[in-house]
């Protein structure tokens, strides 16, 4: 009589599924990581703190090139008009900014002439990033009172600073990543990794146990 081998794939199946899903998502959107966790409320109400946003490369087909809120027939994205992008200012604190493209500017342009006066804190002569030192974009958070370039959040944003643009948001799923990053900052990557591996193993074991019970019940 032959005995059936125990199924040892149960505990690792969830981890494998996550890896496969991440690889497929990367192949689709062309950027890594393929999502960002929103850590502030600057894009509310379209995107709230704790949401997880799937992003794509800025020029990735079939979503086309970048569009600003001022462009004719600009697409609707996350509760507003124009693309929402992830950009990082070199030499800053390293934290990416997740804001909307207001309009494109050319090098040497006094961009305040085309700006919404309600989103400006000063005239061009009093802004460090005006006239525009190079081609790029003026940006803003939907919930903020000023353009990023008027509030001192960022200079004019050139294409090379933009890591990706948003496709859609999943409410509250980003809290997982926010929590992991907070744990890494407080306890270190190694300790956090050990805890996460333990949790993944426990979840996989419980899932395999439940699945085994379901299979046994279906055979009766």
UniProtKB/TrEMBL annotation:
The keyword Membrane applies. It comes from the Archaea. GO terms for cellular component: membrane. GO terms for biological process: signal peptide processing. It is found in: Membrane. The chain crosses the membrane at residues 12-32, 187-211. Keywords: Membrane, Transmembrane, Transmembrane helix. GO terms for molecular function: serine-type endopeptidase activity. This is S26 family signal peptidase. It comes from Halorubrum tropicale.
């Amino acid at each position: 009589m032959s005995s059936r081998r125990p199924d040892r794939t149960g505990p690792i199946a969830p981890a494998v599924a996550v890896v496969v899903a991440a690889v497929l998502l990367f192949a689709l959107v062309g950027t890594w990581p393929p999502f960002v966790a929103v850590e502030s409320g600057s894009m509310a109400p379209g995107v709230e703190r704790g949401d997880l946003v799937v992003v794509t490369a800025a020029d990735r087909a079939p979503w086309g090139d970048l569009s600003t809120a001022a462009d004719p027939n600009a697409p609707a994205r996350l509760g507003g008009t124009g693309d929402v992008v992830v950009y990082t200012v070199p030499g800053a604190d390293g934290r990416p900014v997740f804001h909307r493209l207001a309009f494109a500017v050319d090098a040497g342009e006094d961009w305040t002439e085309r700006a919404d006066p309600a989103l400006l804190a000063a005239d061009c002569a009093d802004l460090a990033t005006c006239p525009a030192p190079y081609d790029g974009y003026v940006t803003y958070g939907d919930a903020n009172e000023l353009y990023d370039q008027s509030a001192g959040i960022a200079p004019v944003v050139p294409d090379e600073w933009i890591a990706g643009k948003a496709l859609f948001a999943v409410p509250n799923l980003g809290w997982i990543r926010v929590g992991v990053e907070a744990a890494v900052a407080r306890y270190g990557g190694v300790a956090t990794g050990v805890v996460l591996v333990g949790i993944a193993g426990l979840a996989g074991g419980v899932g395999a146990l439940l699945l085994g019970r379901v299979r046994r019940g279906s055979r009766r």
